[in-house]
Amino acid sequence: MSDARPQLSAAEAEKFHYLEVLKYTGRAGAERIDPWDPKADAFMAGGAKVRADYTVAKEGGDFSSVQMAVSQAIRDAGAGKTGDRIYIAVRPGIYDETVIVPRLAVGDRSVAITLFGTGSAPQDTVIRANIDQGMSGADFLATFGKAVDDYAPVIAEIYRANAALDRLSTENACVLRVENDGFQAKNLSIRNAYNCDRADKNSKCEDGKGGPKNAAGQFAKGWHQAVATLVHNADRVHFDHVRFSSFQDTLYFKGRVPGMTVRSYYSHCHVEGDIDFIFGRSTAYFEACEIRSLGSRVDHTYVVAPSTNMHTRYGIVFNDCDFIHDGSAAALQGSFSLGRQWFQTVRASPYGIPNIEGYRTRLAETSEFDHPPEGTISLDVLEAVGKCVILNSRIGAHINQQAPWDDWSGGRRNSDGEFVPGEWNTRYRPVQYTSADFFRYLGDWLKGEGLSIDAPDPAEPWLAEFNNRQA
C-alpha cells in the first residue's frame, strides 16, 4: 500500500466496532456515552412482524400519500392516541412526493416513526421527486405543496419556509427529510429524479459552468445538488434494505448545531451517486451496504465528503461494504476517488502558498469572506476536518488504488508533495490522513492567530482502511 492509503492495525480497527462507534453522542470533545444497538430491534433485524398503524397505498389504503400518513401520525401522537413508535406500511408503487418526518415529542416522551415497504424488494416501493438546489421556492410550493394546508402544522411550517426562499438550499432540496429521533425505514427506495434539467434565473450555474459537456465540448445546462435523503438533527436513525438514488449529494446527514454529534446506521442499503454522494458532519455507520459510483455524467466521482469536527470521535465508517460502479467509460479508467474532506462553507483558506502577494487568512468568530489581500475563517469551519474509515470491504478497480483520497477544491502538489503556488486558491485544503497532518500544515498559522488546540498523542486516524481488498 502507498502512503496515501494508511492502514489501521488490528487493535486500532477494533475501536471501530459498530457498538463502539454508535455509543457516543453530544458536543464534540465532551461527548457522553449513550449505548445504542440498532441490531437489537427485532423488526429491523427481520425477526418480528408488526401491525401497521397506518397503511399507504395507491388504492385501498388509509392514505394514498406517504406525507399525509406521516401528518396524521403526528396529529394522533399529539392527541395521545399512539405509543412510543408508530408503524406506517407503504404498499408497492411509485409515490411522487416529498416527505418530511419531523421531531415528535409528547410531554416528556419521544415518539418515533417507522416507514416500511410491503413489497418483496426495496425497488417495489419508491418515494420519488424531481427536486434540486436550483428550484425556486415558488416552484417547490406549486409542485410539492398543493396539500400543505392539510398537513400537521409542524410539517406545513417547513413547506412554507421552503416556499419563501428565492431558491432552495442543498438541505431543502431533498426527497425525504428526517428530523425524527429514532426514525426507521425498511425495504423501500428513496429516489431523487433530478438529472441536469434545470437552469433558471436562480441557478448559480446558469451558464452551465461545472456541468457536463456536450458533443461539441461546450458546457451543457447547469446542474445542482439533489438530495435523496437528509437526516437533519435526528439521532438513532436506522435504515435497513433501503436504496438511495441520486447524483450529487445523495445522502446528507448533519448534527443539531456545529460540533454536535447525532448517529445514523445503515444496514444492507444501496447508495448511488457521483459527486460527494455520502456527506455530512454526524456519525454514520454503514454495514453490509453497496456503494455505487455513477460515471455517466462526470469524468471523476467522489463517494464520501465528511466534514466531521476534529473533536468528534467518529465520522463515516464502512464495514463489510462493496464499492462498485456503473460500468461507464469514466469508471473503467480507474481514477475515481473514495472521497475528499468537505471544507464546508470555506471562503478563505490558511492552507497552501498564496499566489496573491501579501495575502493572509485570519481567524474570525463566525463569518468567512475573501477580499484580497485578506480573508477570514471561523473556528467551526477550521475544525470541520472530516473523518472516514473503511473496514473489511471490497473496493472496485474504478477507485484510484494508489491515491484514493483527494484534496479539497483544487490546488496542486508536485511529486515531492510540495505546494505549487500558481495552483493555489482561496478554498484549498490538502487531504489530511491523521490529526498530525493538521498540525503539520497549520502549526505556524495557529500560533500566529494565538489559537491553542491540543494535538492528540498518539495522532488520530482521520482517513484510514483495514483489511480491504480490491474487487
Automatic annotation (TrEMBL):
Active site: D276
GO molecular function, one term: pectinesterase activity
Pfam families: Pectinesterase
GO CC terms, sorted: cell outer membrane
Keywords attached to this entry: Aspartyl esterase, Hydrolase
Alphabetized SUPFAM superfamilies for the sequence: Pectin lyase-like (SSF51126)
Protein known as: Pectinesterase
